[in-house]
Give the backbone structure.
Amino acid sequence: MYRIGQLAKLADVTPDTIRFYEKEQLMDHKERSSGGFRLYSDSDLQRLRFIRSGRQLGFTLAAIRSLLSIRVDPEHHTCQESKAIVAARLAEVNHVVAELQRIQQSLQRLAETCCGEQHSTTCCSILEALEKGHEPLPEKRCGPG
């Protein structure tokens, strides 16, 4: 049996994280020591690692709760259910990646239109583009060159 600090160290989380998961009913502590300390088992450690892995993949607490219920009661669930949860998260990640790629391309174009010289910013293609709310035209450069 582990006390909360030991469990936290083994799972690479803080004791407050464990308390939070208990508050969210993702974990439970069934036993206490004679001194009133929470005690956890190896299955609690396994469950905490499961939750932590899910969080590292960006699953919401609700999704982790669903995955845990599938894991705990496999006779009443199918792989299709867990796959659907993963597919939904993958779709979210793909959306974010696409958005980040769009931002990257816009920033690249902004950087390419700026001369980068040490002159006054009264004529700066980056600042003008941000002010106007659109990307600068490649031929609209200021400064030397």
Q: What stands out?
A: Strands lie at 2-3, 31-32, 38-40. The two ends are 72 Å apart (CA to CA). The chain has six helices and three strands. Helices lie at 4-11, 15-23, 42-56, 61-72, 79-113, 125-132.
